[in-house]
Design a protein that fits this description.
The protein is of the alpha/beta class. The chain has helices spanning 2-8, 33-41, 49-59, 74-82, 95-108, 150-153, 168-174, 191-205, 216-225, 261-270; strands at 11-17, 22-28, 64-68, 87-91, 113-115, 118-119, 124-131, 158-166, 182-185, 208-212, 232-235, 243-245, 255-259. The chain has an eight-stranded mixed beta sheet with strand order 5-4-3-9-10-13-11-12. It has a three-stranded mixed beta sheet with strand order 6-8-7. Helix 1 packs across helix 5 and helix 3 (49-59) packs parallel to helix 4 (74-82).
Length: 276
């Protein structure tokens, strides 16, 4: 109880979403990088603006939405704002991030399922490295991504934490889902293991997948995993309209949308969201 009271004493911002024509609130801490950019530039003004716009539109026709690497919950909150009847599951293993995520859910009085675990292709525990008592934006399973980025550390204390890891089938059955429509994956290099964990359901339901690609190796591995599915690959340059490409790659913009043919045709027909 005290933890949530402490969070709510901090500042909040109101965010207008012109896709859903609604307003929601977000907790604003000193170390809230994403929320500060949204406060300054608007929801679709700077931070992953094309990704967020696509996500908002796709959420409207999605019944089951999974946000993997939810961080403070911007994508999860946006999903519920655009589709109040959807089932949204937010997965985030880092305690500081998870606390803000759950505070944002309570702040908006949304019904969003949460899991404080890391998703992978096995069950157990794993090491993660994080800034102590700070929000974290580049943590990954068994990898200290801060080591190669001294400009980001800037004197902050990095600590090793042990987090539970879980496979997707256990979470799917736990929450009694009947379908799978839309997924966001932002796990800082652990994308292949996450996709492997979900392949049974991806093959069955062909959900649309918004995913961060950080290397050509990851891109090639994911391409092989989904090669039997008729996905269209959409490269998202956050500064121009997303466009279809032949293959996944490290595109320097990081985000891709893997979408099924029905979704692709719908997006293409709009002419304002996607270019071929």
């Amino acid at each position: 109880m005290f933890k949530f009271l402490k969070l709510f004493k901090q500042n909040t911002i109101s965010v207008y979403d012109d896709v859903s024509n609604s307003t929601f609130k977000l907790v604003l801490r000193d170390d809230c990088y994403i929320e500060k950019e949204i406060q300054q530039f608007g929801l679709y003004g700077y931070f992953e603006k094309e990704s967020l716009k696509l996500w908002s539109i796709l959420c409207r026709d999605s019944k089951v939405i999974i946000d993997i690497g939810a961080n403070t919950g911007v994508y999860s909150i946006l999903a519920k704002a655009n589709n109040p009847t959807s089932n949204v599951l937010s997965i985030e293993p880092i305690s500081t991030n998870f606390d803000v995520l759950t505070a944002n859910i309570k702040l908006n009085k949304f019904k969003i399922l949460t899991e404080k675990v890391a998703l992978s292709n096995t069950v157990g525990e794993a090491k993660m490295y994080m800034f102590k008592d700070k929000l974290n934006y580049m943590t990954s399973i068994n990898s200290n991504r801060y080591e190669g980025n001294p400009e980001i550390i800037q004197g902050k204390e990095i600590v090793e934490v042990i987090v539970p890891i879980q496979i997707f089938s256990n979470l799917y059955e736990k929450h009694h889902f009947k379908s799978l429509d839309l997924i966001k994956i932002d796990v800082e290099g652990h994308e292949v293991e996450v996709i492997e964990s979900m392949m049974e359901y991806i093959s069955k339901f062909e959900p649309n997948i918004l995913i961060e690609i950080l290397s050509d190796e990851i891109a090639n591995s994911i391409s092989k995993l989904v090669e039997s599915i008729n996905y269209h690959f959409i490269s998202i340059d956050e500064n121009t309209m997303p466009n279809e490409v032949d293959k996944l790659n490290n595109n320097d913009h990081h985000n891709f949308l893997l979408c099924n043919s029905s979704t692709f045709n719908s997006l293409l027909a709009s002419k304002k969201i996607l270019q071929k």
